[in-house]
Amino acid sequence: MDITTEIITIASRKGGTGKTTTAFNLAFSLTEQGREVLLVDMDSQANLTSTIEIIEEVNYTIYDVITENVAIEQAIYETNIKDIDIIPASLDLANLEIEISDLEDRELLLSEVINDYNSNYDYIIIDTAPALDLTTINALSASNSVIATVRPSMYSFQGLEQLIDLVNLIKANINPDLDLEGILVTQVDRRTRVAKEFINDLSNLYQDKVFDISISQNIAVVEATIEGIPVYLYDSNSIAAKQYLELASEKNDRDILSI
Ligand SMILES: Nc1ncnc2c1ncn2[C@@H]1O[C@H](COP(=O)(O)OP(=O)(O)OP(=O)(O)O)[C@@H](O)[C@H]1O
Asked: Which is one Pfam family of this protein (predicted)?
């Protein structure tokens, strides 16, 4: 793997926390900074795959790459968004757990493929399922960094803690390069007390791991997703469009600080 490629997994134990939305919109924001991005859909729900328009015929998915030895290059497709390519998901990913019973091979599948891949991308962003299952373990084992997404709810802390425990376990045993890059709060309704208290509590617990920027609950996101485009291309003046651009800037600032 080219060491200039950063591999980011977007993860959360809970469903509907904005993983797919963040993978897509962060990818777009990074292309706005002149970067090239490969999205990898590791979620068997395949929401990212069905949201973004793939402009070539799809013959292979990430499932074929990790289980059938299909070359990764054969599963990379251009999308209608400039400088974003994708490796699509397949519903078969849901069977991964059953099909690979050999424990020793479990975490190695995607990381082996990615390690051997001579990437020209600046970023590979992996969208994962709302579970700490084999697909997520694969993604984390192959990544440099994790962005955890959460929604403001008192039930979010437990899932976040479980994800962080898994990240630490994988860092200690499988992939020393892995770091929790940041926690991103999404779908924030700023009128509510619960949102303010949640962000406060989260910041007290995880301090600078929490991104300064959080993403507001914004109808433009929903409408953009229906159109299959990043929120910035749907409405560049929307609050979420600006916040996702800001997320990429904050990520850059953090990367510079950690060098
Ligand atoms: N900032 C936002 N404002 C309004 N709606 C949003 C926002 N972010 C995400 N959504 C909507 O919330 C729903 C869940 O978002 P998304 O699919 O990104 O979450 P997810 O974590 O990937 O879900 P899953 O856990 O099922 O994979 C989608 O309908 C999406 O359009």
From this structure: AAA_31
